């Protein structure tokens, strides 16, 4: 099993920064939502960031080396998780920082695939190892993160049961859905699915599966696809699902969807903050890092 987890935290957080009139947020929470990377918003006990809880679950799952991809203005991460660029000790986790630089001519980052490519260029040891990748603004369970460590498939992703996600149905309907064969090998990813095609995308359990950006990759075979990732024609970004599909097309039967049925708390917009705070209060009354 591999010990490396790469956390994507260099995005622009544009949806979180949109204006919203909410009576369940304090001025401080609104200010943090407007100014901080989403994973650093203080939603936990004593105002600790959501990222604390993700790191706790990563530790429980057995990860040792954490690479956090931050933006060019991401110095606040170092106030929470270590002032050095590499090898900070945070509750027994070894935390290093990669920086996602914005290319000339752009005003915002170039997407998740670009973020990971810049990270493996800065930490080339990952290109000869296996590693997991996830978002900083989702709280994946320790069980799901462990499943990524345990799988023997070269590449994998957590294939969440769409019906188990506790989001508004309109929001869920926009999630891209995965098409898996009878052995849960990835065949295709469909963005913006229409209701007419849903039956064609049900897996062997009759479930519609979606990705929440929790992946496991083989560094040596993924590198070329990361480097050569095309730009998405609509969103003008380089995205990890594109990399994954290009890898599958070249190497069929190397990417498994691991079925999971559970909710994944998410900080996308200001409206999510109160929900995540309640979730953490219920399921994580204390942050217990153990010995």
What does this protein look like?
- The chain is of the alpha/beta class and 291 residues long.
- The protein has a single domain, classed as Spore Coat Polysaccharide Biosynthesis Protein SpsA, Chain A.
- The protein is 28% helix and 21% strand.
- The radius of gyration is 18 Å and the shape is globular.
Q: Which characteristics define this entry?
A:
nucleotidyltransferase; 21% strand; Spore Coat Polysaccharide Biosynthesis Protein SpsA, Chain A; 28% helix; 291 residues; alpha/beta; NTP_transferase_dom; transferase; Nucleotide-diphossugar_trans; 10 strands; 9 helices; ten-stranded mixed sheet
Mean pLDDT: 94
Which CATH class is shown? Alpha Beta
User: Would you report the number of β strands?
Assistant: 10
Largest beta-sheet characterization: 10 strands, mixed
Going by CATH, the homologous superfamily would be Spore Coat Polysaccharide Biosynthesis Protein SpsA, Chain A
Shape: globular
User: Beta fraction of the residues?
Assistant: 15-25%
CATH topology, which one?
Spore Coat Polysaccharide Biosynthesis Protein SpsA, Chain A
Number of helices: 9
Low-confidence stretches: none
Task: State the order of secondary-structure elements, H for helix, E for strand.
Answer: EHHEHEEHEHEHEEEHHEH
Number of domains: 1
Oligomer: single chain
User: What is the annotated CATH architecture?
Assistant: Alpha-Beta Complex
What is the share of helical residues?
Answer: 25-40%
Question: What is Rg?
Answer: 18 Å
């Amino acid at each position: 099993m591999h010990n490396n987890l790469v956390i994507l935290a260099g995005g622009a957080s544009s949806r979180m920064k949109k204006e919203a009139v909410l009576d369940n947020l304090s001025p401080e929470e609104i200010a943090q939502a407007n100014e901080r990377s989403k994973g650093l918003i203080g939603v936990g006990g004593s105002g600790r960031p959501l990222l604390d809880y993700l790191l706790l679950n990563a530790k429980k799952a057995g990860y040792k080396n954490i690479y956090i991809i931050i933006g060019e203005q991401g110095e606040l991460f170092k106030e929470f998780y270590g002032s050095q660029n590499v090898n900070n000790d945070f509750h027994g986790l070894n935390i290093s920082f990669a920086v996602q630089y914005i290319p000339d001519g752009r005003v915002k980052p170039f997407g998740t695939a670009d973020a990971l490519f810049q990270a493996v260029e800065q930490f080339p040891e990952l290109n000869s190892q296996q590693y997991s990748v996830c978002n900083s603004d989702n709280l994946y369970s320790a069980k799901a993160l462990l499943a990524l460590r345990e799988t023997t498939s070269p590449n994998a992703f957590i294939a969440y049961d769409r019906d188990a996600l506790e989001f508004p149905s309109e929001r869920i309907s926009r999630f891209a859905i995965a098409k898996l064969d009878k052995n849960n090998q990835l065949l295709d990813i469909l963005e913006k699915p229409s209701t007419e095609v849903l039956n064609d995308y049900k897996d062997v359990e009759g479930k519609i599966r979606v990705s929440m950006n929790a992946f496991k990759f083989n560094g040596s075979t993924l590198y070329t696809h990361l480097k050569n990732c095309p730009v998405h024609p609509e969103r003008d970004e380089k995205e990890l699902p594109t990399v994954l599909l290009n890898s599958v097309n070249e190497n069929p039967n190397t990417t498994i969807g691991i079925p999971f049925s559970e909710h994944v708390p998410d900080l996308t917009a200001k409206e999510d903050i109160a929900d995540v705070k309640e979730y953490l209060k219920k399921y994580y009354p204390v942050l217990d890092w153990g010995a």
